[in-house]
Design goal:
79 residues; mainly beta; globular
């Protein structure tokens, strides 16, 4: 079981591949960050978008399937 903590907007692709390739079962996501998990390399294939912690990726049908991750800061409404 692997848990990834996402706290930055840029995630190094090689590090992600080495750490979580088809091993990720939960994810912790910092406030104002959106993450897209992909089941294929290079942001290809089926995906799931998350903006909050997900302690059980099986509930999203994505347990042990993640091969690439894209993360961005969410824009905040300042009005």
């Amino acid at each position: 079981m692997k848990t990834l903590n996402v706290e930055q907007s840029v995630v190094v692709k090689e590090t992600i591949r080495r750490i979580v390739d088809n091993k990720l079962s939960s994810i912790r996501i910092a406030e104002n960050v959106k993450v897209v998990l992909y089941d294929g390399a290079n942001y290809q294939g089926a995906n799931v978008e998350l903006s909050a912690d997900e302690p059980n990726l099986a509930s999203k049908n994505f347990n042990d399937k993640t091969s690439s991750i894209f993360s961005v800061f969410k824009l905040m409404d300042l009005t």
